[in-house]
Amino acid sequence: MLLLVGSVPVDKLPLIKGPVDFSTKGIEIGGTKLPINRGNEAMMTAACQVCKLLGLDKPIGLVAGDIGKREGSEAIYYYLMERLPSMEVDVMTLHYVMPDLKLNKKVLESVGQMQKKPVLIADAGSMYVAKAGGDASFYDVFTPDIGELTFLADEKADHPAFTRGAIFHMEENVSELIQRAYAARNAPPTMFVKGRVDYICHNGSIVATIEEPSVESMEPVGGTGDLITGMISGLIYAGKDPVDACMIAGKANRRAGELADPTPATQIAEIIRFIPQALAEVIEESG
Amino acid sequence: MKWFKRKKKKKSPKSDKATRGLLIFAHPTTVIAVQELLRDEGYDIRVVSPPPSYRTGCDLSVEIPLEAEAAIVELLHSVRLAPMDVVPITSEGMEPLQFVRVKDFGKYLMVRAANMKITVDKETKVIVNISGGGCPDVPFLATSMLGKRLRDAPDPGEVGFSLCAYSLNTAREEIIKLIGD
């Protein structure tokens, strides 16, 4: 099972779980329609697109409404704490869950009780809480952008908002930041650093970079990073090695951006529709 | 020459005796309103991370001079911004990042504070994109603010709840300084 977990911006939407269906308008889980948006809707759509292309079963979505008041995130934490030990999950992606150090540690304890530990992927708030709790190495893949990488490289920061100025200003030296993150054990084995140049890291080393095609106007478009996380999730579920999954996802994301020819005002839905074509091209090229 | 060496002065007893206190709130964005109010009233305050026992991973508190605690708490009660708790502190908390990065895309301007980016049409002042961030209110804030002129869009400090909303507010204030609203 590919389990995709996170909050959606619908106030008081109760916890729902079920196969994720997708269309050009958004996703649907357990009869609840969620329009395309940055965050989990984009991440889950991209994962669905990979699964469909590669003939896999649909991902299972576990979502709850949370607009920052924590209720939805807490419902997710409690569900995972109670149910994970009896679930069979191959890959679990956690995204946009409100950081809660104590509850996240309990979820990780539940992961430890599973018969087989799933591949764990974290982005956004779920990555922040993993790092702040000193648990990054328990995970398998993080997908930070450059700003979030400075946070991972700052051993004292609990949240990107607390990254110290001196480290925030080291952004031009990405390899140094990556080394710092690994040295402080604030990075999992595989990391995809999203930026003007994408860096794919494994066990402390940069194993690949992706620079082309370069579509500068993708940077302001909210949700492009979510697509990468979703594609990586689907590709790992398909059996790809995490580093290969990062390579394919990074290239496909750039190709989709190139096909969409965005401006800084473009919305994520306009890029999502090119993901299947981009993925097919990249997978064919990579053999 | 040894005899000219001055004895090192001892550091102020900041770390031994608590002279500062922390106001703890349920949401980081409440701190924005409290910060503005207390600064306007002339108090010497800092916005910092709370002590470990209060940390969830997404929180912010206000450091105040302890001698002013009673007056500050009374003031905050009167405007319904009462803190959850007040704790004395003996060490300094970390301050949130105030640095921003600006990127000019010609027709559009993007400002990033910490992990949050806001992009605005320079001519119309309409918010065209919000990206980055990781707390659940970010997609909600994006939906609420996109397509609106800066002056008409909801203030992330008022409708958001998280440190990402705090950073988005920092970016928004900077972009208003640069191009107006």
Describe the structure.
The complex is a heterodimer of chains A (287) and B (181). Chain A has one domain: 3-Layer(aba) Sandwich (UDP-N-acetylmuramoyl-L-alanine:D-glutamate ligase). Helix content of chain A is 42%, strand content 19%. In chain A, α4 links the parallel β7 and β8. Chain A has an 11-stranded mixed sheet with strand order 4-3-2-5-1-6-7-8-9-10-11, sandwiched between helices. Chain A is of the alpha/beta class. Chain B has 181 residues and is α+β, with helices and mostly antiparallel strands. In chain B, the strands form 2 sheets. Chain B has a 4-stranded antiparallel sheet with strand order 2-3-1-4, with helices on one face. In chain B, β5 and β6 form a beta hairpin. The radius of gyration of chain B is 20 Å and the shape is elongated.
